[in-house]
């Protein structure tokens, strides 16, 4: 306990500890440490070995469900993908080339979309209400995608930011303020390390990243800027540009983030910090887009996925069949949580700042389901088995309460639910959202049967999935 004090103070404290009744000495030491301006928080070196030893702040595992928001200049053409610029001008994919030739005059550049990113209907308070209604506990906004356009007035993105061009508003600040004032959601920011067509990045790439003009002048200053100015609790890095973490100085930045930044005690980070870091280094693992391993992982992970099956940004040409149904989204949520992950579900707003009604519907329906079944999601841990061996469904667990939750997605019309993994229940069996205990019969090593209430669809406690609460399960 003396290690945080200077050497002379450590000697004095040792003498006090030897001369005073031990309990009093301990109280004096504790008081000293609490009043010490430097405290005793761990310091991390700029190495992966040291950074990876940092415990993940506990709040992240408890919340389970977040909303991703992909919004930027790509929301103006809103065609095909948020990778519109790359597919049109670099890969010259025919649908994108034809779209531009048909709808825009010759010589129209991607930069010309900037002033058309108007956001006139963007209402941060309305967004906060919608996000809160979803049952999500954190939100991650794309502060800058690979196009390089920043949603705040970055001094490192001259004339290519939302304060100088288009909305002429600080989108990041407005949403951060509303989220913090109107909800209990944790606020996070996505940031792309690289930019497709930035001349400094292209110069470094042509030198096989032996020069570092782009991260020094652009990417790293932006990261320090958004952390200091907006204090996000999630920093979602992306887009390594095929460059190693040494090019980005990722370990140096993360050491500052964990040691000295204003969010050093609460911030969580992902694993996309350079070639070779994904699914290997960082606070939690994403491994790949739409990552859903289907089994328990030894490290905290996140499934980032999209309601629109084919795009992260808004698409005007999307069809109804392109959107995941609420049943499919809940299936993704419960499978992810049962295997120890968080679900980060993405929406793409329109260029004028609206969350399209189909996204609103999906978000609110997720919230409706979580209002009934949320206790089986928030604050849970993986159980000894993640899915049932007989009936399609998954398990979650609250150790302190000795409660197992069996989540099943198809209502048993027969009136009997067969569970293959719980062997014996010493406590109670209940259907969440329905009063009274349920009768059950042990099948020994084959599990158990549970008699579910005979309810009409209108009488069911919720749609899209149901939860049995089992206490003292063996």
Automatic annotation (TrEMBL):
Residues 386-471 form the Alpha-L-fucosidase C-terminal domain. It comes from Chelonoidis abingdonii. The record marks 304 as: May be important for catalysis. This is Alpha-L-fucosidase. Its EC number is 3.2.1.51. GO terms for cellular component: extracellular space; lysosome. Belongs to the glycosyl hydrolase 29 family. Residues 1-42 form the signal peptide. It is an enzyme of class 3 (hydrolase). Keywords: Glycoprotein, Glycosidase, Hydrolase, Membrane, Signal, Transmembrane, Transmembrane helix. Gene3D superfamilies: Glycosidases, Golgi alpha-mannosidase II. The lineage of its organism: Eukaryota, Metazoa, Chordata, Craniata, Vertebrata.
